Predict the structure.
Amino acid sequence: MKKFSLWCDFIENNFLDNEFLDLLAFGVNGATSNPTIFKNAILTSPFYKDKILKLRGKKAKEIYEELAIADIQKAANSLAHLFHQKNDGFISIEIDPRLYDNTALSLGEAKRLYSAIGKENVMIKIPATKASYEVMYELMKNGINVNATLIFSLEQSQKCFEALNLGLMEFRKNNAALKDDLRTPQAVISIFVSRFDRLLNHKAKEPNRIGILNANLAYNNIIAKNEANIRALFASTGVKEAGLAKDYYIKELLFENSINTAPLDAIQAFEGKKEFKKPLMNFEIYTQLNQIILQEEREKACDDLLRDGLEQFCMAFEDILSKL
C-alpha cells in the first residue's frame, strides 16, 4: 500500500491539548518545531507567562529549554500510539541554531537534549551544514532519530543521506541481535520548497514551480536508495502568494513514501484525499528547470536560502533568549 505522511509544522502548549488532537484524528501523524515556531509560541501565548515567572533566576537558555522540552514531551506523548503502530508519530526539536558550524558542540547539545526529553519518538533537528554531517552520522550510530533540516540543494540531500545511512549501518552492525525495530533510528531529510518560489518567481518563466521541481529531484535521490528508515520530507510548504491554493505544495508533492510538514492553514485546506502524484524523472526535471530559470540562478539561490535560513533561526533564537 502506498504511504504518505502529513505532519503539523506548529507547536504551542495549549494547541497540543486541543486542536492538535483533532488533527491526529484527521490523519496527521507527526509534528515539527523550529526556533521561529517556538519564538512565536513562547513570546505571544499567555500560557507561558506564569511559567516564565516561576523560572526567574535561571539563565535564559535554561528557561527556553524547560518550556520547549515540556511542549515536546507533551507532543511526544500524544503521538506515542502512532509511533508504536509504526505510523510515524515523531516530533522534532532543533538544537541551538547558533551551533551550526561547530561539530563538537552540536553533537553534545543534540545528545543532551535527546536525553533530557526522554522520549523515543523524538527527532533531533540538525541543519545540513558542512560541520553537521558528522553529527548526523554519530546520532544515527547511537540510535537517535534525526531530522536533517534546511536542505535546498541536491548536494546537501546527497551528503545528508550518506551521513545518515553510514550511521544507520553502524547502528545495525553494533546491534545485530536487536529484534525491536522501533529502537532502530529513523531519519528524515527536510527539503525546503516554497522559499525557492518566493525568492525566484520574479525571474522565473513559470511561477511556483522551481521549489517543486527542486524537491522532486532530491526526493528521487533519496527514494532510489531504497532505505525505509531514511525518508524525504517536504518542508516550507506554506503558501504566501495570493490566488494560490493553501494546500498547493501538499498536493503537488504527494509522492509515495514521502512526508509533508505543513502549516495549519495548509493542513486545514487539504481535504485528505490522497491523490498520489507520479514524480518526474531527473531528465524531465532538468529540462523543465532549464526552461524556467538559469542554472546559475538556481545554484545561487541554494546558497542564499541556506544562509538566510540559518540567519533567521539564529535571530529567532536570540530574540527568545533576549526576552526571557
Observations:
- The first strand starts at residue 4 and ends at 8.
- The beta strands are 4-8, 30-31, 90-94, 122-127, 146-151, 187-192, 230-235, 258-262.
